[in-house]
Amino acid sequence: MLKKYRTKPYTVLCYEALYRRLKDNYRNNKVLNQEYLNYITGYRGEQTVDYKLSTYPHKNFYIYHDLRLKINHNYFQIDTLLLSSKFIIILEIKNWRGELNYNSDLNHITQTFNNVEKGYQNPISQVLSHEVQLNSWLQATSVFGIPIESLVVISNPTTILKNNQNDPTFYSKVIYADNLISKINEFNSKYTKNVVNKQMLNKINEALLKGNIDYRPDVIQQFNLNDNHFIRGVQCDHCGSYPMVRAYKTWKCNECLYTNPTAHVRPLLDYFLLHKPTITNSECRAYLQLDSLKNAYTLLNSMDLTYTGKNKARKYHAPKLADFPQNSFVPNKKRVRLDL
After folding, report:
1. In a domain, 333, yes or no
2. 4 phi/psi in degrees, rounded to 5
3. Is there a single domain that holds both residue 194 and residue 256?
4. How far is CA 98 from CA 10, 102, 115, 167, 239, in A?
5. Would you list the DSSP string of 18-56?
6. Residue 340 within any structural domain of the chain
7. Is the domain of 47 the same as that of 129?
């Protein structure tokens, strides 16, 4: 039973919002492009494994995608977690391509792709650390004794894995996505005794959902950006000109005369992703280049946002992560097009 769906994480959404709001000449940034590539590639790899997992008859499992939990003032993130009454499985998903060479002596993995070598933290150490962290988190929730297994799942079937030292841990921990179902069946055969009852299982489920804290990057601070880097007002999604002007119940582009009654929605969602999770009427007017307090009030209320406060003190709150559009337009004409 799927308990927590995977949506685009804030990392991907924030970078896409950044591309939409940056002026054209600032989009072609190698560091920005590479960071976005890393996040979107990882997300697509996770989706690949999600599909493989969806073919498994998982009525005896609770499945959680993209969990981020806190223990002892530190956060740890789990790509996918499978919870049953008998055991738990942690999946660390890697969408690495090319050739991977594992060195157990150095506790390190080297990727060779397109004749370029790149080193990574040992993913086996990563999942073993997650086992310890999750066990500590469960104990803090008064859950003891449930076995925890972990796997590193390589989502790309063309990736070549090399374990030149024949480390047995590598063979037991690192698998291709195509082998995931058979590995789950192995664990099912290994663990046959119920460790927690239905009531405790529901308690763990509630604690996981309540304890999840999504990571939200501050990309403006990360790239040292200011107001001069950003588009002002509402950009025309037909010709790219800005700002559009607010006419009667619609937005109008003075360059191409294109009209769109909901052109404010995407920019306001991008505001929440890039700036802060609340917006006031005054901030909305400045951001959308509006003169009318009433127009700003109407537009904000049309989005069915939750709000707190009254009159000038009213703050409209960002939607939940899952409610952000998943397939929004991302401009790429002025930036390097990367092979995703």
Report:
1. no
2. -140, 115
3. no
4. 28, 13, 9, 21, 39
5. HHHHB-HHHH--HHHHHHHHHHHHHHHHHHHHHHHHHTS
6. no
7. yes
- The whole-angstrom separation of Cα 332 and Cα 337 is 7
Query: What's the CA gap between 306 and 10, in Å, rounded?
Result: 20
* Same domain as 238, residue 175: no
The per-residue pLDDT string of the chain (340 residues; one tens digit each, 9 = 90 and over) reads 899 999 999 999 999 999 999 998 898 889 999 999 999 999 999 999 999 999 888 788 999 999 999 999 999 999 999 999 999 999 999 999 999 999 998 999 999 999 999 999 999 999 999 999 999 999 999 999 999 999 999 999 999 999 999 999 999 999 999 999 999 999 999 999 999 999 999 999 999 999 999 999 999 999 999 999 999 999 998 999 999 999 999 999 999 999 999 999 999 999 999 999 999 999 999 999 999 999 999 999 999 999 999 988 999 999 999 999 998 888 864 444 333 3
Residues 201 and 246 in one domain: no
- Does 337 reside within a domain? no
How many CA atoms are closer than 13 Å to the CA of 208, on its beta-carbon side? 26
Domain count, the chain: 2
Look up residue 277 and give its amino acid: P
Considering the domain architecture, whether residues 249 and 151 belong to the same structural domain is answered as no
Flag whether the pTM goes above 0.70. Answer: yes
Q: Are residues 246 and 164 in the same domain?
A: no
Do residue 149 and residue 290 come from a single domain?
Answer: no
Range of the domain at 52: 2-211
Please check whether residue 63 is in contact with residue 90, taking contact to mean a CB–CB distance below 8 angstroms. Answer: no
Per residue in 207-223, is it b (16+ CB within 10 Å) or e — as a string? bbeeebeeeebebbeee
